[in-house]
Amino acid sequence: MQPRTYRCGLDAAVDVIGGRWKALILWALHAEPLRFGELKRKIAGISEKMLIQALRELEADEIVHREVFHEIPPKVEYSLTELGQRLNTALLPLGDWGEENMAGIAKRRGVTPAPPHTASA
């Protein structure tokens, strides 16, 4: 198998946030660190398996920080690294574009949009 080659910065960025869930995880973590269960509740429709996989990949890319608190019961929190915060800032215009065009996109795709500003992510 040939090693991957990035053609441009967008290619590299999309590789990091590609898939259905990673951008939503970043969005959910923008305000504060969250525990696994809190993240799962904020991201409607994600399975535990997919959340674990996406978090591991984001951690490997140094976008998300996983902190284990050695207490009983054990506690793990996820937060954005500085790199993750910068990536989230870069996603803000994309989120704005999506908000502005959500109704039309939903209509064309046969999807029901959430009411404004109440989406879970």
UniProtKB/TrEMBL annotation:
It holds the Pfam family HxlR. The keyword DNA-binding applies. SUPFAM superfamilies: Winged helix' DNA-binding domain. It comes from the Bacteria. Gene3D superfamilies: Winged helix-like DNA-binding domain superfamily/Winged helix DNA-binding domain. Keywords: DNA-binding, Transcription, Transcription regulation. The keyword Transcription regulation applies. Residues 8-106 form the HTH hxlR-type domain. PANTHER family: TRANSCRIPTIONAL REGULATOR (PTHR33204:SF29), TRANSCRIPTIONAL REGULATOR, MARR FAMILY (PTHR33204). This is HxlR family transcriptional regulator. It comes from Amycolatopsis bullii.
